[in-house]
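ok here's Lysozyme, seq below lol
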Amino acid sequence: MITFPSLLITLIKHFDGLSLKTYRYPAVVRSIGYGHTGFDVCENMQISKD
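and the structure came out like this:
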């Protein structure tokens, strides 16, 4: 498992923001949470802050 410095995580949260529902980037890539993308991100997926 890769760990990241807390400052990096804070910057990502600040600039990317949190989305509890999937949204689509212009390049047809879906994202959820704090910019998480990948094959496991599906249309209409929802997550919670917990």
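fwiw The mean pLDDT is 88. kinda neat tbh
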